[in-house]
Specification:
Blueprint (H helix, E strand, L loop, with lengths): L1 E2 L5 E5 L4 E6 L9 E4 L5 E6 L5 E6 L3 E6 L5 E6 L5 E6 L5 E6 L3 E6 L4 E7 L5 E6 L5 E6 L3 E6 L5 E7 L6 E5 L4 E3 L1 H6 L2 E4 L2 E4 L4 H4 L4 H6 L11 H4 L5 E6 L5 E4 L2 E4 L3 E9 L7 E6 L2 E5 L13 E9 L3 E10 L9 E7 L8 E7 L13 H16 L6 E7 L5 H14 L5 E12 L10 E3 L11 H7 L1 E2 H10 L4 E9 L4 H5 L3 H15 L2 E4 L9 E2 L4 E2 H13 L8 E3 H20 L6 E4 L5 E4 L2
Parallel strand pairs: 23-29, 30-31, 30-32, 32-35, 35-36
Antiparallel strand pairs: 1-2, 2-3, 3-4, 5-6, 6-7, 7-8, 9-10, 10-11, 11-12, 13-14, 14-15, 15-16, 16-17, 17-18, 19-20, 21-24, 22-23, 24-27, 25-26, 25-28, 28-29, 32-33, 33-34, 36-40, 37-38, 39-41
């Protein structure tokens, strides 16, 4: 079924091979054109932009173009080897694009009735076709659960989106190998195949993950990341093996490993497969325990094995130890894991909160209105909601002049000696955040902006000296023993910073997510790609923290409504609530950033 662009005609097709055209604007219900068009079923109909012509296609593998006024047959196009299942004219009416059960898309030049190009990429029959107003972008959908974006002029594939059945999960990939998508879509979705080697997409996260990829290409913008082709850049990651050194401490009961000792020595071996061994990492219950740091073995020697031994302090109950490694191109190895149970005494957990809010900067043009109010609002909600969960709640706050790099480093150093693996650690930050310059010789990094930074952009030396980079946050988080960690960033860009920030959003989002992913922290951040965290006078808070506290006070209780708020429930609530509030108060939706690789855990009980 199709309506003509002028709204005056409607065309209906039947499996008996006929098409009828009705006057959609008139009162007469009789068809104005009755065409016997095909020798089999009709699967697709489309009107030309000027509403004068109608294209039809079906089970006889032919495409026919008709005069929509009198039903006269004008052209017959033949090129598909199976049912024609989708049709669309371009916006000038000079081309017709057809899709078929033969999994191909053909672009036809209607003037000479010949194919211009054939597009191949789907794995099942084509169901739908759409063209943008400029006649440059072509969108195709198929029963292979894939949507593809093409350059109509060149016939090249720009993007592919794979949709998971029965969920909202998806993965978007570009021709160069860059990708974005939902967490589960990336984690459980596509794999990259090179010869006989299969590598999960998640293994390419650090180099090829690009937030906002679909929107960037759809808007016709160029990728800001260097155009590295995955096929050219790809080298195999190391092969990883994990072993327990003090095996006398381990016994097996009912197929499960049991430890008699709290401290286990774990050796991780990485074998070079041609890409070098840049770093070896060990995770304990999802949280990064230790790493060799980068440059572990920079020169690749095929087949060479390097190892690192770690001391692991087990917690009571289940201990999942996961090892991985990265090559010199930062391609990640298949992780390996073992599960060890330990029946030691289960101590009651403490909650440690480091809460930072900064309204007044040394450079007054950077000042914010509600960062301290947000910090106090969040901290109060946490103390009230978590009192019955934890033995002790220890809160450390820094605001305005107190928030300097020196003081935050001293605070994190102190917590490294006091926080235990069974404890929970939360870092909350309300203030400015920024990326270093793309033009810098150094790699772009995300920074928290302390009080004494007077210039956010254009002065990378100041950022490196006084700012707190995502790399440094990773080191601090790794050194703190708590396996359950939550990072909350209500990082704003406002005033004179906004103009400089424009265009850096995707890089910032990637840096923040990479921080959470690499450390095993759960991340909740105020805004996504190319957006600004929003302060609203009517509510006296930033929108993100306002929604955050709503969730902690009970609104995030999902599922079976058990009166318990977990970090994953809070993340899901913010995904829905922040766009709703920003639309209401600011007229445009602000989307938060979230990432959860570590364990889900409760942080608030509804009273």
């Amino acid at each position: 079924m199709a309506f003509s662009p002028d709204g005056r005609k409607a065309a209906g097709a039947s499996w008996d091979g006929t098409v009828k055209i009705w006057d959609a604007a008139g009162a007469n219900l009789d068809p104005i054109v009755d065409v016997v068009s095909h020798s089999g079923e009709i699967w697709a109909v489309a009107f030309s932009p000027d509403s004068k012509f109608l294209a039809t296609g079906g089970s006889d593998k032919l495409i026919r173009v008709w005069d929509a006024e009198n039903g006269a047959l004008l052209k017959t196009l033949q090129g598909h080897t199976d049912y024609v299942s989708a049709l669309q004219f371009n916006n000038s009416g000079t081309q017709l694009i057809s899709g078929s059960w033969d999994k191909t898309v053909i672009v036809w030049d209607l003037a000479n009735e010949k194919p211009i190009k054939q597009l191949i990429g789907h794995n099942n029959y084509i169901r739908s076709i759409a063209i943008d107003n400029s006649n440059t972008l072509l969108l195709t959908g198929s029963s292979d659960s894939k949507v593809m974006l093409w350059n109509l002029n060149s016939g090249n594939t720009l993007l592919s989106m794979v949709l998971a059945s029965d969920t909202e999960d998806r993965v978007v990939t570009s021709a160069q190998g860059f990708f974005e998508g939902t967490e589960n879509g990336i984690r459980n979705g596509l794999h990259y195949v090179k010869g006989t080697q299969i590598i999960p997409l998640e293994a390419l996260y650090e180099k090829f993950y690009m937030p906002g990829l679909w929107a960037t290409i759809l808007k016709g913008e160029k990728l800001k990341t260097p155009q590295v082709n995955l096929n050219d850049a790809f080298k195999m990651p190391p092969l990883v093996k994990l072993t327990i050194v003090n095996k006398d401490a381990i016994s097996s009961e009912n197929g499960e490993l049991m430890s008699k000792q709290q401290i286990l020595q774990i050796t991780v071996e990485a074998t070079d497969q041609g890409g070098g061994i840049d770093e070896i990492l060990l995770y304990h219950n999802g949280k990064l325990l230790q790493t060799t740091q980068r440059g572990f073995k920079p020169l690749p020697v095929m087949g060479e094995t390097k190892s690192k031994t770690f001391d692991v302090s087990l917690v009571s109950g289940k201990n999942t130890l996961t090892a991985t490694a990265l090559n010199n191109e930062r391609t990640e190895a298949f992780p390996v894991e073992i599960i060890v149970n330990y029946s030691g005494i289960r101590p009651q957990s403490d909650l440690y909160i480091v809460s930072v809010g900064i309204n007044n900067y040394k450079n007054a043009t950077l000042n914010l209105n509600y960062a301290i109010a947000d910090m106090e609002h969040f901290t109060g909600a946490m103390q009230n909601g978590s009192a019955s969960i934890f033995k002790n709640i220890i809160v450390k706050t820094l605001q305005d002049k107190d928030f300097t790099k020196e003081k935050i480093v001293a605070l994190f150093t102190e917590l490294q000696t006091t926080v235990q693996p069974e404890d929970v650690f939360i870092f909350y930050y309300a203030g400015h955040g920024a990326m270093s310059s793309a033009e810098s010789k150094q790699q772009e990094k995300f920074y928290l902006i302390p009080y004494n930074i007077t210039q956010i952009y254009g002065n990378d030396d100041m950022l490196q000296k006084h700012g707190i980079s995502s790399d440094e946050l990773m080191q601090y988080a790794t050194a703190i023993k708590a396996q359950k960690q939550l990072l909350i960033l209500d990082a704003c860009q406002s005033g004179g910073a906004v103009k400089s920030f424009a265009g850096r959003g995707a890089s910032e989002q990637k840096a923040i997510i990479q921080l959470a992913r690499s450390t095993g922290m759960v991340l909740l951040a105020a805004s996504g790609s190319e957006q600004y965290a929003t302060e609203v006078g009517e509510i006296g808070h930033g929108i993100f923290t306002y929604a955050l506290v709503e969730g902690l006070n009970g609104k995030a209780d999902g599922g079976d409504k058990d009166g318990k708020i977990t970090v994953n429930e809070l993340k899901s609530f913010l995904d829905d609530r922040v766009p709703e509030l920003s639309e209401k108060y600011k007229g445009s939706a602000q989307y938060p950033t979230g990432f959860a690789k570590g364990m889900d855990f409760p942080i608030s009980i509804i009273r």
